[in-house]
Amino acid sequence: MKHLSSSEAIIINIIMFSRQCLSNTTRFIPTFAASRPPIHTLRWRWELSLWAMVITSGCLMLNAPTTTAFDIVTCNVPLGMESLVITDAQITASSAHDMGFVGPQHARLKNDNNGGAWCPKHMVSNALKEYLQVDLLQTHVITAIRTQGRFGKGQGQEYTEAYVLEYWRPGFDKWQRWKNIQGKEILPGNINTYSEVENALQPIIFASKIRIYPYGQYDRTVCLRIEIVGCPWDEGIVSYSIPKGVQRGMELDLSDKTYDGNEQGDRYVDGLGQLVDGQKGKDNFRTDIHGFGKGYEWIGWRNDTPGLLGNPVEIVFEFDTVRNFSAIVLHTNNMFTKDVQVFVHAKVFFSIGGRYFSGEPVQFSYMPDTIMDHARDVTIKLHHRVGKYLKINLFFAVKWIMLSEISFISVPALGNFTDEQDQRRNSASQAQDTRDDIRSNEFQRNKNKPIGAGGSAGGLGEGLASAAGDSGGNSKYKNGPQYRLFLRRLM
Ligand SMILES: [Ca+2]
Ligand SMILES: [Ca+2]
């Protein structure tokens, strides 16, 4: 066997070092030391320190904090009405009986200053005209609401017997009324001026602003103190779009029951729902865990429904900013005896502008498992691909695909956000020239590509095509810092 030169030995060590760095940062040092060749020249030392710098920076990048998947169990933190983390300026209302004495800034749970609560100017009824509004400044998951009446140091008499919730988040063109799984909108409130009542929300709410409308069957004077319980929505998902799930037999509704966007043909668009609510289905999709109906947690698609005939299930995610993706995790049913299996193949496409996903997709294949029928998390590594939009194509192995949750391991893509109008213009016109080539070659390239060999090779083509898409009139993303960063990377 050929004797290794010192440079070759270093490179081998670096490869080993990097691999270990990827898998476990605490184990790599002994391995490196054990196979280290003797250091005997200055040049060797110089090379070593240079490579060490490269590896260290690589390790730092790899070990940068990544977003962990959303966990519904830990999403139960008071968001700051009681603690004053939510400022007075974030709390507004339709009116107040007396702005200073019982204004919206006094609607804080367990606080009793001035009048001791928020009281609207008018009596409330079932007309829902008076509301308290809290601006959380960024999208949060809201899992519960706590309310109290006006104790007013023992002088208060008013409380809110029932209420209705509305919410808003970026991307909505109107406020959305919350309703529970049974379609009921009215939540029970208080029965006296001091006891605290909590309503856990099912479904949970993704919102940056929330309104509470005191409700009364008859005209009634009310006051209110509240706390909002939940957590920040760190996954950065603005919305996803999916084909509508279908009915299976008479009793199994495999739709996205909590989706809060719009219908567009045979798809749901611009909303969030069960795919990202942190709740997973059981192995047997017929299990009724919470009494919401059999199969409730699952969303299912059948390969012979119109629109899916011969096509994959296509899911598109929009994120709040350009992100760097490590992986996507799909919780999938595999009850093969009932014609449900993990998708046999997946393609993941990326886009900056959201109109063109023309780059080389990350490809993934799944060996059919007809031995174990448990539901499972299937992880697809995304090799630090970058995008603001991500499109997933899932190909049927058998008649049914069922998913109950999708999560991402990603971080916002960081970069040098400078204003580069001229570069943007040049890149866009260059992209226009190359777009047609890229698109016409896509099928051929995908066809020739070995399965599982997806990666970052298609990044440039994808980027050019996306830039071209934006130059075609979608000005929404044209002037954003991410767009400029992205074009800068193309240069
Ligand atoms: Ca779910
Ligand atoms: Ca469902």
UniProtKB/TrEMBL annotation:
Does the keyword section mention Metal-binding?
no
What GO CC annotations are associated with the protein?
Answer: plasma membrane
Check the record and name the CDD domains matching this protein: FA58C
Annotated region (Disordered), positions in chain: 420-457
Which locations, inside or outside the cell, does it occupy?
A: Cell membrane
Its primary localisation, in coarse terms, equals membrane
Q: Which SMART domains match?
A: FA58C
Tell me which InterPro entries the record gives: DDR1-2_DS-like, FA58C, Galactose-bd-like_sf
PROSITE patterns noted in UniProt: FA58C_1, FA58C_2, FA58C_3
User: Which topology term describes how it sits in the membrane?
Assistant: Single-pass type I membrane protein
> Where are the compositionally biased (Basic and acidic residues) regions?
433-445
According to the UniProt entry, its GO molecular function terms are: ATP binding; kinase activity
What UniProt keywords are attached to this protein's entry? Answer: ATP-binding, Cell membrane, Disulfide bond, Glycoprotein, Kinase, Membrane, Nucleotide-binding, Receptor, Signal, Transferase, Transmembrane, Transmembrane helix
Ribosomal protein among keywords:
no
**Per the database record, which ranges form the F5/8 type C domain?**
75-231
This protein's name: Discoidin domain-containing receptor tyrosine kinase B isoform X4
Gene this protein is translated from:
smal
